[in-house]
Design a protein that fits this description.
single chain; 422 residues
């Protein structure tokens, strides 16, 4: 195993990976600013749960319906070029929206279209970066890199929420959007100077396969893996319950806790501090020896603290904030460990297809919950989704420990085809 990792370690992998990673970090900051600004704009302009859930829904659709196709493109194409095109396209779409705001021609549906197109670009960019990571980073460091990635996400949220609130007071909306354009271009710049390795083909003498053959192979690979399928069903149930909770958080703050944009920024920032510390913990610790146990413990933590947010009274805002810190702490432990499992166990040439298919299946039910949650929350309150979603998470996390195929998922595909990065 060590000899298979040594070639990457001898190539000064840190310089290449972290230079590209830094560019992506700037792009993520811009995306977080835009996300915060647009969600707050929709909240103040409409005050409608249905509008907010619709915005989340249109952002989910590309990953659900086009994600597996994008994964096949990633595995067949040049991953570096795919990332450059995706980042540039996202920057162009954001620039168009900034111009609409500048000329006073903005409509709600324009924001929906931008969110859809940004998500479409992300459907290509995200899998390309994730699949490339396992070829740029030695396997023994993947869990720690996942922890660092989760910590980055939390850190950017800490910065983005208050910075977004500040920028909305200092700049017009088109100014905030312009920041995202610049940061997207910063993500593209390092890709001009560093190559991203491509996965080795199974056999140099093998006949080339068509796009649709590769597409079907990705489905077969996933659906023959019982442990992975059960985890996907678990993730689908969790996303069904908690996606509306996340989408409706601005209304939880304004209507249930009677807060304003500063309270929303605090809520997001404390959650993100938890994510930072959770990512730092995972980065230093690496998780339990059996990584799937780390995932399940994280799921229970997400559920427990989400449930507390749902049951606190309107006067208990500070307790809800403290509970969101707990949710944030558990999120990177869950997602980072699961990502490390897949980057280790899935062969590099399949990762684009597998990662996008995992994302599509796991979020497939979310549009239905979003369509239900808007009208139901307008009538019964947003906090119900936190309460019910938290309870589902706890039950699923505990049940996973008693399913042998789930506990053995980190051992790899049942075919035994686990190909290490070259």
């Amino acid at each position: 195993m060590t000899s298979q990792v040594d070639p990457i370690e001898s190539q000064n992998w840190q310089r290449r990976f972290f230079t590209i990673w830094t560019g992506q970090a700037f792009s993520l900051l811009g995306s977080q600013l835009v996300q915060f600004a647009l969600v707050w704009y929709l909240t103040k302009e409409t005050g409608s749960a249905t509008v907010l859930t619709t915005a989340t829904l249109v952002a989910l659709l590309p990953s659900i319906f086009l994600g597996p196709l994008a994964g096949s493109f990633v595995d067949r194409g040049n991953r570096r070029r795919i990332m450059m095109i995706a980042d540039s396209s996202i920057a162009l779409c954001t620039l168009v929206l900034a111009l609409l705001f500048a000329f006073g021609r903005i409509e709600i549906w324009h924001i929906y279209v931008l969110l859809f197109l940004r998500s479409l670009g992300g459907s290509f960019h995200g899998p390309a970066m994730a699949a490339s990571t396992s070829l740029m980073v030695p396997k023994r460091h993947l869990a720690r890199i996942q922890g660092i990635n989760q910590m980055l996400g939390g850190g950017l949220n800490v910065v983005a929420a208050p910075l977004g609130a500040l920028l909305l007071e200092l700049l017009p909306m088109q100014g905030v959007l312009a920041v995202d354009v610049v940061t997207a271009l910063l993500a593209v710049l390092p890709l001009f100077f560093f190559q991203i390795p491509q996965p080795e083909k199974a056999s140099p003498d093998a006949a080339p396969t068509s796009f649709w053959e590769d597409f079907r192979a990705g489905f077969r690979y996933v659906f023959q893996w019982k442990g992975l399928l059960i985890i996907l069903l678990m993730a689908t149930a969790i996303n069904f319950m908690l996606t509306p909770a996340g989408a409706l958080t601005p209304l939880l703050i304004t209507k249930y806790f009677n807060g304003d944009v500063r309270d929303l920024a605090l809520f997001d920032a404390v959650f993100s501090v938890g994510v930072i510390l959770g990512g730092l913990l995972l980065g230093a610790w690496g998780g339990f020896r059996r990584q799937v146990a780390t995932v399940l413990v994280g799921i229970v933590g997400i559920g427990l603290f989400s449930f507390i947010v749902g049951v606190v009274p309107p006067s208990g805002f500070l307790l809800a904030v403290a509970s969101m810190f707990g949710v944030g702490l558990a999120v990177p432990i869950t997602n980072g460990s699961l990502g490390a499992i897949f980057q280790t166990a899935v062969e590099p040439g399949m990762q684009g297809r597998v990662f996008t298919l995992i994302g599509s299946v796991a979020t497939a039910a979310s549009p239905f919950s979003l369509m239900l949650s808007g009208p139901l929350s307008d009538q019964f309150g947003v906090q119900t989704w936190y309460m019910a979603g938290g309870l589902v998470c706890v039950l699923i996390g505990v049940a996973g420990f008693f399913v042998p195929s789930v506990m053995s998922v980190g051992e790899g595909h049942p075919s035994g085809k686990v190909v290490t990065a070259k």
